[in-house]
Amino acid sequence: MKIYTRQGDGGMTVLFDGRRVPKHHLRLETYGTLDELNSHLGLAAAGCGHQGLKDQLQALQRQVMVLGSDLATPLGSANEGKIRRIGTEDVAALEREIDEATAQLQPLKRFIIPGGGVTAARLHVARTVCRRAERCLSALMEDRSDPVGGQPLIFVNRLVDLLFELSRLGNKLDGIADLEWNI
Q1: Which residues contact 164 (CB under 8 A, 6 or more apart)?
Q2: CB 48 within 8 A of CB 57
Q3: Of the candidate ranges 3-17, 73-87, 90-104, 125-139, the one whose mean pLDDT is the lowest
Q4: What's the number of domains the chain is made of?
Q5: CA-to-CA distance for 108 and 68, rounded, in angstroms?
Q6: Which residues pair with 21 in a beta bridge?
Q7: Is residue 123 within 8 Å of 54, Cβ to Cβ?
Q8: Is residue 3 part of a domain?
């Protein structure tokens, strides 16, 4: 099977519901940003020397794939039954992960500058890409003619928080102090 189809050569692509939209459509920008996030998570996982954290990052990659398929399939489409939507249980799972990571860390007293060890730095990049995906998703949700469920935005918001805490945890596991920002 060939990887190229030539269907997008004219600047259009097909959503999972069969609708053709321009490649610059906000829905594509949103799940394209999630794809970029997923690549950064993969890079962080590939270089992570801590198996538990690596496993957690790879599990997050799978969740981001679920979110991408959710956003590639507009609500009410004929193919809706073929994908899994992000739901409240996914948000609750992220909240548990945030709480577990936070429990292993010293309380924050100052803002921190992104960086430290390589794993933490890569997770900070992933966090900022995730924040961009959140902005795209928020804008997409304003378009009432192209509906998106409410849980994806909450999920992405929690994912940003989790990536922040995991970056701090990565530094702790690597024996590197977070770089505090002193005003």
Answers
A1: 124, 127
A2: yes
A3: 3-17
A4: 1
A5: 32
A6: 13
A7: no
A8: no
CA separation for the pair 37, 29 (Å, rounded): 12
Q: Among residues 106, 108, 112, 124, which one has the least CA distance to residue 183?
A: 112
CATH code of the domain containing 56: 1.20.1200.10
Question: 1 versus 30: which is more confidently predicted?
Answer: 30
What letter represents residue 177's amino acid? A
Q: Which of 77, 105, 92 is nearest to 17 (CA)?
A: 77
Residue 113's domain comprises 22-175
Q: Is residue 5 part of a domain?
A: no
Query: Token digits for 66?
Result: 């679920």
End-to-end CA distance of the chain: 57
- Flag whether 41 is in a domain: yes
Instruction: Please report whether residue 180 resides in a domain.
Output: no
The percent of residues in the chain predicted with pLDDT above 70, rounded, is: 100
Strand stretches in the chain, DSSP E: 12-14, 20-22, 112-113, 179-180
What's the Rg (C-alpha) of the chain?
A: 18
Of 57, 61, 83, give the one whose Cα is nearest residue 72.
83
